[in-house]
Amino acid sequence: xxxxxxxxRTLGQMRMPEFCPRCFWIQLRSGGxxxxxxPFPGIFHSIDKYGKDIIHDYFDRKQKLPxxxxxxxxxxxxxxxxxxxxxxxxxxxxxxxxxxxxTPDDIFRMADGKHHIVDYKTAKATKKQDELFPLxxxxxxxxxxxxxxxxxxxxxxxxxxxxEPMTDIPSTEFDGVMDDAGFALNFMATRKKVELKGxxxxxxxxxxxxxxxxxxxxxxxxDGCEDCEKLERVAGLTRG
Length: 240
Fold this sequence. Notes:
The chain is α+β, with helices and mostly antiparallel strands. The protein has one domain (4-239): Alpha-Beta Complex (Lambda Exonuclease, Chain A). Helix content is 38%, strand content 21%. It contains 8 helices and 10 strands. It has helices at residues 8-12, 21-29, 42-62, 81-84, 127-130, 133-150, 199-213, 226-239; strands at residues 4-7, 75-78, 90-93, 98-101, 106-110, 115-121, 155-165, 178-179, 182-183, 187-194. A 5-stranded mixed beta sheet has the order 2-5-6-7-10, with helices on both faces. A 3-stranded mixed beta sheet has the order 1-4-3. A two-stranded antiparallel ribbon has the order 8-9.
């Protein structure tokens, strides 16, 4: 059986209300990306890394998380970024022939020896953002699945932490965030707990992903799928 690499975020697409099996088949067959797909802006990765560096530096010096950080329990340490890179944080599932991989934002080792996985989102915790929650829920549960299956990071808790830019400040406070070198942007952190589901939750999604991938022809698309309509228009242009 051909090994199939699937990222945690990609698997999470299967739980979204607008999930389209046809687009998913094309995405898997084309190396994980749909044609003409806009890449994720790199600035968000830079902000995430900057925030983690600040949090880790504070923990190294104080042996605790910053006061503004949402309460997640008694943290004893954090895992280094090298251990969490997708090239190392992966699991090969013998049943489905799928290699699950991803890069957790943070994994904290708690006082009881278990682990708490955190994913940061540079965004406002709004209703619109919550529409992506099914994807984030799978993403975090995949990280827990990988950690538990590898036996290295037994996990008991998952959290989303929205890191919201504080842009609604009065002009009277502008002088406090600006100097001759530039200006600063403050952030506020809000935690949303995520249910830790059983391993069957992730295993079931892997089996479905393998079933879709193995089809010789793409399955029917979701009614009203805009990506399917765009692909049909492109195909029509090439056919003349």
